[in-house]
From TrEMBL:
Belongs to the universal stress protein A family. Pfam families: Usp (PF00582). Residues 8-136, 146-277 form the UspA domain. SUPFAM superfamilies: Adenine nucleotide alpha hydrolases-like. It comes from the Bacteria. Signal peptide: none annotated. This is UspA domain protein. It comes from Stackebrandtia nassauensis (strain DSM 44728 / CIP 108903 / NRRL B-16338 / NBRC 102104 / LLR-40K-21). InterPro entries: Rossmann-like_a/b/a_fold, Universal_stress_UspA, UspA.
Length: 297
């Protein structure tokens, strides 16, 4: 039976191949949550449009292709579609307020390079009120782990909780990765055993509060000495079903608020990427109910 009370998984489409990849990801996410899928398209012209929105395409064909893609990915999924007269950023930010998670492509129909990040995607990720999931990489193996980048910053706490919910829903392990470095070190050989043990203890402490709430999730901790945390997380993304990162907070400064790590991985991650903001959650993540919480009902 469909859970008609669940907030929908929302995906934005614009006729690009990237947006159809986002539809497939969103359909899978909706099926995991037993939630409906909502497909939206921004239709606008003139000075108020985003640059990517102005690329000509057949709107009816765009929505039909999205619907076919979703049903091919998850037959029987409850799907609604809507064409909204507003800019893409406006539509997606408004929809994020009513969604469980917002799913987008890495760039729109106007993109020219695989490494260029669409202006709409960047705007939405930095300003959305709910978690934003970006379709990146190829379809991962069904048993691939969820990876969460852990820095110890207060804003990363909610990202860890979100990663646990995703791992539990998929029935896969969670890999918590803390890429650390000390100013005086150039390579791993300069890290003492005591320093490495300290990094391991910090990581275990940061993850610890969530392990008790999600007892069925197998957790693997990785404290990795790395001069470049992006390179370390990028390596883990190559064998992950999802990479989860925390962001500093919402605002208009875009890359500053997102952080250089998040901004770079939005362009380079080899698996779907989820960005979670601190304001989005308080205490237990709201998007799934953990096994422990179900037992209390």
């Amino acid at each position: 039976m469909k859970n008609t009370t669940s907030a929908p998984v929302v995906v934005g489409v614009d006729g690009s191949a990237e947006s159809l990849a986002a539809v497939s990801l969103a359909a899978a996410e909706a099926a995991l949550r037993d939630a409906p899928l909502r497909v939206v398209h921004a239709r606008v012209s003139g000075a108020t449009a985003d640059a990517e929105t102005l690329v000509p395409h057949d709107v009816s064909a765009t929505m039909a292709a999205a619907l076919r893609t979703a049903l091919d990915a998850r037959p029987g999924l409850e799907i609604t579609t809507e064409i909204i007269d507003a800019s893409a950023s406006t539509v997606l930010l408004d929809e994020s307020d009513k969604s469980a998670v917002l799913v987008i492509g890495s760039r729109g129909a106007g993109g020219v390079s695989q490494l260029l990040l669409g202006s709409v995607a960047l705007d939405v990720v930095t300003r959305a009120h709910r978690p934003v999931m970006m379709a990146r990489g190829t379809e991962p193996a069904t048993d691939a782990p969820v990876v969460v980048g852990v820095s110890g910053a207060p804003t990363g706490r909610d990202a860890i909780g979100y990663a646990f919910t995703e791992a539990e829903a998929r029935g896969v392990p969670l890999h918590a990765v803390h890429a650390f470095n000390y100013p005086y070190t150039r390579d791993a050989s300069q890290i003492s055993e005591r320093e490495h043990e300290r990094a391991n203890r910090l990581l275990a402490n940061w993850v610890g509060e969530w392990r008790d709430r999600y007892p069925t999730v197998a957790v693997h901790l990785f404290s990795v000495h790395a001069l470049d945390p992006v390179a370390a997380l990028l390596d883990f993304s190559s064998s992950a079903s999802m990479l989860v990162l925390g962001s500093r907070h919402r605002g208009k400064l875009r890359t500053r608020l997102l952080g250089s790590t998040g901004y770079t991985l939005m362009r380079t991650s080899q698996c779907p990427l989820a960005i979670v903001h601190k304001e989005q959650q308080s205490g237990q993540p709201q998007h799934f109910v953990s096994t422990l919480e179900r037992a209390k009902v």
